[in-house]
Amino acid sequence: MKAKIHLKNHCRICQSENLKKILTLPQMPFTDEFILQEELGREFKADIPIHLCLDCYTVQTQHDVDVTDYYEDYQYSVGTSKTASKFMETLAKSLIDKYFIEDKIKVLEIGSGDGGQLIPFQAMGGKVLGYEPSSYLTKIAEDQGIKTIQGLFNESSIEKLPEDFKKVDIVLLSYTFDHLPDPVNFLETVLEILNPEKGILVVEVHDLEKIFDRREYCLFEHEHSIYLTSSTAQSLMERMGYVIIDFNIVPESIRRANSLLFVATPKGSIFANQALPKVKLDNFEELNFYETQVQRIYQGIQNLDDYLEKNSQKGKKIAGYGAGGRGVMTLAAMNKAHYLEYLVDKKPKGQGIYCPKSEVPVFGIEKLQESPVDDIIVFSFGYLKEIQEDLQKFGYSSEQLHSMLDVLEGREM
């Protein structure tokens, strides 16, 4: 796949040109561009440089990749995962119980995927609408009874909204906000459609604190534009006319993998008096902190390579579980990914496909029964318990499944 890259020279948030490159992952692919054998080597690859704005301290990319065609066929979905379903139901119930207990609400989700998150809102009496770029996922959502507009959301998208959704009570983005190339423009647009008296903006993104703590370099992607902490999230919202009123609407124990989840509201709303105290993360304003974290990331990649090479030399067969972004990007940055027998997923994108760059073959989970392995690295570690239960039917014990986080830390050698 070919894609145009547009370079930037200013901060996506404050427009400053005072930016410092802190990390580069060389020649990385898209997370969802799986390839057939005859296409090996022809997939999109480009460096992913990560920058820090030295004025507002937002970590970000400084390149935009034209993703219009890419998202048209995007298929990633958590599907029927019990873990994901519990989170979605809890989020909907918690928001309604806390802010709209006696109200009939309208919910607009940007990047709504297969409609899974809107289903519980609708079941609780809300009017819902999705906005989703993937035609594949839009059809699934519509088949599930979730009205969805197909397209990339921008300032002109308001014109495409039905009249009864020109004002909404909840705007929701789950792992979508950090994909937006222009978050400032988006937040301005949301203020036009959000109920000014009691509207809320609900955002879930990957937490930069956790990315560094866990060495989750796989979350640095071409598809992502910014990486927030609780502190920079607050600063961004306040800059744009919002305040954050909740960082814990769903307990951490119920969330999936890496989650920074917050509820914001316009400064003039009835909820604005619930604004949280300012979070201060001094380390994230110091360059030497980032230098240390980058070295930890490089060591994590080395730990993964060492784990595969040493176990292969011992005669062990190792497979991976999880062909989402974590699996694809983790393998793409490694030098020894070829020691992995294969990668499995509960819902692989197709048959006869390979991961981009690493060229690891991808199969359904039945492959673990057809071609048994000794151990499995679980890249989808947020669903580890669920995966352990699923693989028991193939005779795999929990001791054979290793979270990628443990391997990154060098705890599984």
Describe the structure.
- This protein is α/β, with parallel strands linked by helices.
- The protein folds into two domains: 285 residues, Rossmann fold (3-Layer(aba) Sandwich), CATH 3.40.50.150; 101 residues, 3-Layer(aba) Sandwich (Rossmann fold), CATH 3.40.50.720.
- Helices cover 29% and strands 21% of the residues.
- It is built from twelve helices and 20 strands.
- It has a seven-stranded mixed beta sheet. It has a seven-stranded mixed beta sheet with strand order 9-8-7-10-11-14-13, with helices on both faces.
- The longest helix has 27 residues.
- The protein is globular, with a radius of gyration of 21 Å.
- The protein starts with a strand and ends in a 5-residue tail after the last helix.
- The model has no long low-confidence stretch (mean pLDDT 95).
